[in-house]
Amino acid sequence: VQLQASGGGLVQSGGSLRLSCVGSGILISRYVMKWYRQAPEKQRELVASVNILGETTYADSVKGRATISRNNRENTVSLQLNSLQSADTAVYYCHAGLRGVARWGQGTQVTVSS
Question: Is residue 66 classed as helix, strand or coil in its secondary structure?
Answer without folding.
Answer: strand
